[in-house]
Amino acid sequence: MQSKTQETFDVLVVGSGASGGWVAKRLTEAGLSVAILEAGRPQSDQNFTEHRPEFSAPYRNRAPEVIRKTRPTQKDCYACNEFNYDWFCNDIEEPYTTPKDKPFSWQGRTRLVGGRTNVWGRQSYRFSDLDFKAASYDGYGMDWPLGYADLAPYYDLVEDYVGITGIAEGVDALPDGRFHPPMGMTCAETLFRNRVKDKLGWTTTLGRAANITKPLNGRSPCHYCGPCHQGCVMHSYFNAAFTTVADAMKTGKATLITNAMVYKVLTDAGTNRARGLLYIDRLTREPREIRGRVVVLCA
Ligand SMILES: Cc1cc2nc3c(=O)[nH]c(=O)nc-3n(C[C@H](O)[C@H](O)[C@H](O)COP(=O)(O)OP(=O)(O)OC[C@H]3O[C@@H](n4cnc5c(N)ncnc54)[C@H](O)[C@@H]3O)c2cc1C
Ligand code: SF4
């Protein structure tokens, strides 16, 4: 029989990654009580290994066959290595199915607070109206019901919080953001950029990345050590674990429940509205119930 929490939360957020972290931050800052249910384990600076040399790993980070025993699919993700593979879900314990004629290698499934923002590549671009209104330009698909002007204020809001480094180029197809100072190009890259501009008139620019290059909200600027997918004790890249989720927790209005694998949304028979969730506590393997007035699925 499942155990129940007594409290009824305003909102239950399932997943603590890119989207769940934002939802929890915004709602708690607005004064709502939020429970974040995360199937994975807690994340902390102690788990970060970006400064550990490969020779310090038992297999020198050279034995993919060891990782494949538990993560045969996740190992194909470039970001999964000997230092961080236990951040990724165990493919044997958590398999997934696809139709026979539509095989899919679902890489990058993580199981810890922060979700895939722990290991993501941090490339962060604004869409332009070439994207939103693509059908009007090329005849394929459908236009979005909104355009760049509608979303621009939200891009500003997110970028101001996340911190994106890049070069403003004034190119319509790739709208500029509110950038942190650019990381800089090498001599060869600068030569290439200038040649391409001179000969073709095209713009070559730096990747726009969620790595801060000046201090932001207690986070330190990136020092370019490289393996961000192993974490960052400086908190220089955007990882929901130490940004949105941490800020939601600071409000005192968030409750983070880790190792909570949600498997059912409970609805009220009369109103047909969500009233709670069922989840498995992965440590005790017991089912539990939690109550909330609204459920937001971000998993
Ligand atoms: C290697 C890699 C590189 C990437 N590079 C980029 C990039 O450069 N730029 C870019 O824009 N995007 C990139 N992405 C994609 C980006 O990380 C994802 O689009 C984004 O994190 C998705 O956010 P999300 O909140 O939907 O999911 P996630 O961030 O994955 O969060 C979902 C969370 O929900 C939890 N969860 C799942 N099921 C349940 C359940 N039943 N109950 C409770 N919790 C559950 C998971 O454990 C996870 O923590 C990359 C992804 C990977 C893996
Ligand atoms: S964000 Fe910068 S400092 Fe942090 S791990 Fe990545 S490269 Fe290193």
Describe the protein in words:
By secondary structure, this protein is α/β, with parallel strands linked by helices. Helix 1 runs parallel beside helix 7. The mean pLDDT is 97. The structure holds flavin-adenine dinucleotide and iron/sulfur cluster. The site of flavin-adenine dinucleotide has 30 residues, from helix 1 and strand 4.
Compute the number of strand runs. Answer: 6
Topology pattern, helix = H, strand = E = EHEHHHHHHEEEE
Characterize the largest beta sheet: strand count, sense, and whether it forms a barrel. Answer: 6 strands, mixed
Beta-strand proportion: 15-25%
In spatial order, strands of the major sheet run 3-2-1-6-5-4
Helix content: 10-25%
Question: Structural class of the helix and strand makeup?
Answer: alpha/beta
Short summary:
With 299 residues, the protein is of the alpha/beta class.
